[in-house]
Amino acid sequence: MNLDPALNADLHCHSVVSDGTLTPEALAQRAKAAGVQLWALTDHDEIGGQQRAIAAARAVGLPYLTGTEISVTFAGRVVHIVGLGFDPTATEIVEGLRATRGGRGPRAREMAAGLAAVGIPGAFEGALTYVGNPDLISRTHFARFLVDAGHCADVPEVFRRFLTEGKPGFVPHKWASLKDAVGWITRAGGIAVIAHPGRYDFTPTEEYALITEFIAHGGRGIEVVTGSHTPAEFVEYADTALEFGLLASRGSDFHSPDESRIDLGTLPPLAARLTPVWAELADRIHR
Ligand code: AMP
Ligand code: MN
Ligand code: MN
Ligand code: MN
Predict the structure, then answer these.
(1) Same domain (yes/no): 93, 110
(2) Is 85 a residue whose pLDDT tops 80?
């Protein structure tokens, strides 16, 4: 395996098993066609697509790491933790993710009630028609329904007007703890990675608390080059990775050809000064 930081690795994307619009098979083909050299499918709170992704990657000759993106509540805010290279049959992570997903149904009904109160009826049933996995109804599915029903021009507008804190369709929710999410991944033989750290609007003190608690629980990686970061943040979080001795990860966070700004495998490479997360996962790669 090429353990070079410049490897075209894409270790963050979503399929119909969570809130993406492509199947694991279509993603494998798209990644291969884009020149991706190492791929991971990281569905939100779900690993139900992992066997399909492993098989599809093998069929197109694309090295593959198992993946997921766990929703975590940290200091009253939502943080995402990516897991890479874990055993997807390990009981603890399977059950932990099942429990994390369990709150989504009731949350979605409350979101729909909030939307109905501002004159948008039927949003639960509407969102469900966009769902590929009934266990994984997300805000993205509501957003697609609201766009197609003519309430907003595009998905970002739905989030701005209806689905973010303080807006009518937003429901505060308690996700997994940081300790549990990192523990499930690590004890299943994988590496936990802080997803898109630049997206959280944390103060430097809050970010320091997140990173140090994450490390204390056994977390080892951080996304540096992601579709959610600006070029300035590629540099900022490369510095952060080195400062805290974290392994660096890279991923597009691709969801859909129609919605995602950044396609699979198209971001700049990791800086040569970083140690990539795949340097420590060579024996976990499926080929
Ligand atoms: P949920 O896990 O149900 O809270 O949904 C979170 C998902 O919503 C994220 O993974 C993104 O795919 C999407 N999302 C969050 N914020 C935005 C935004 N401002 N614009 C577009 N999509 C967003
Ligand atoms: Mn998503
Ligand atoms: Mn995320
Ligand atoms: Mn994601």
Answers:
(1) no
(2) yes
